Amino acid sequence: MFESDRGEGENDKSHPDMRRRVFLTSLGAGLGAAVLWKWSKPYAIVSAAKTTPGEVTVVKFSDDGKPLGKVTTAKVVKTEAEWQQQLPSGVFEITRHADTEFAYSGKYWNLHDKGIYRCICCDNALFSSATKFDSGTGWPSFWEPIAKENVREIRDRSLGMERVAVACTECDSHLGHVFDDGPRPTGLRYCMNSASLRFVKAA
User: What does R_g of the chain's alpha carbons equal in angstroms?
Assistant: First the structure.
């Protein structure tokens, strides 16, 4: 039957079915993508939660942001059960299993107070408000860490792209990712999860 031979009522009845099929297909694709994203976190990042004993060198800072010098210290090593007991569920998934918080959902993305940001897991100093900037992404962003020794970078080839994940040197907590589209002088954007950080306001 040609389209012109169909009655007006037949065309009207076909539209809801078509819309329903399109909706269900789109919903399925969206859920599939979410599941794929959830389970495609790179092994290298996820395994960071399984910290092995050893020593690391970091720069210590006072709460007012003054450097106290380099120290060599034992890595913070805890079992999954110990981390789960210490951290809220969402924070545990982000810091120990490389999950990511939703944009604009964290408590620090729009914070403009002066101070330093420490690791929520081990209190290692990570970033200063002096290098924080509004990236427009919905995550707290910095153009450099408070000390290069205090963070480490991991190649992340998940999601069909290559990125660089950032972890705490002292406890291997997953912090976020670093990109090369930041402001001067470094041109970098350390895009962090608020859940991975603890802000200490300057006195």
Answer: 23
